[in-house]
Fold:
Amino acid sequence: MKSYQLKNLNVTNSIFLIASPIIAVLGTAWWLSQDGFSWGIVLMTIIFYYATGMGITVGYHRLFAHRSYKTNGFVKAILLIFGGCALQNSALKWCNDHRVHHGKVDTEQDPYNINEGFFYAHMGWILLQEDIENYKFSKDLLNDPLIMLQHKFYLPMIIFFSFIFPGFLGHVLFDSFLGGFFVAGFLRVVIVHHFTFFINSLCHMLGNRPYDKKQTARDSWVMALFTFGEGYHNFHHTFQSDYRNGIKFYHYDPTKWAIKSLSLLGLAHSLKVTKQEIILEKQIRASLESIEKSSTLSERLDEKIAYLKDEFNQIIQDIHRSGQENKEALTNRMQEIILELREITSQVQVVHA
Structure:
């Protein structure tokens, strides 16, 4: 387990993560006592909450870290400002850590390894994090002038846009600098911090693993509500470059919707989407792996699984040499196989219960 001795702490990060919730609570109380409650300040806080939270997910995560779509310099600059205002470090540092996480997930080299416990994955790693000066996983980002500009001027940028600017807006729009500074500033930062930190902690603990059962990332519609759509995390870790996390139209994934909206407006292009047959193949392999680990299958279920497995293997062979019309029929059959495997899984679970 990691040691949180004073000599191991990142002093700047530790002071801010400890002090910011205290400042947020005391500042909010001061605002209420001096200016009184204002729905305008609440609305502004919500707007800043979504803008900065999705600055991380739309910008830092899916654009810069995974290159799941492309956009123009203006949109990139806006995302770098909003992402920076989430106070989770510069895009260069954030993306480099994240790429290491994906490459070394669930190992000792994983910057926010869930096997070190909830607290470590949630925020403990930030208290202890070491700077990676060579950025060997982010050489493409080192050649991006906007990212390097943000990295160079990160501190003055976040002081202005994350605190002074909302304070100014609060004063101009609602006659409350304190409300803008402390509520839309500090309180919003604390909320965004812990909701996005859930991606590294609870999204590796709660939910199921329909695509890859070998790693800890999990899919959870509940966690998606708190993480700007990042809760479909097993999908993301399996198909990292896909611009979506929630692939169904009803999945709560505001990050996906924002990226799609940008594309419809002509502000984003080259959105990466994983082929349906590849997703279905992963689902079936994961289901078969889970079922085959059971030691209490009846002879009937064994025969059924063997039949489905043979059919699935034949489909995989056929799907690579089929025309589009045939491919659609084959993927439909793969979806039927998934439903049959779910039924078998439920029967196995009933037997175990």
Summary: The chain has a mean pLDDT of 91. The CA atoms of residues 71 and 158 lie 23 Å apart.
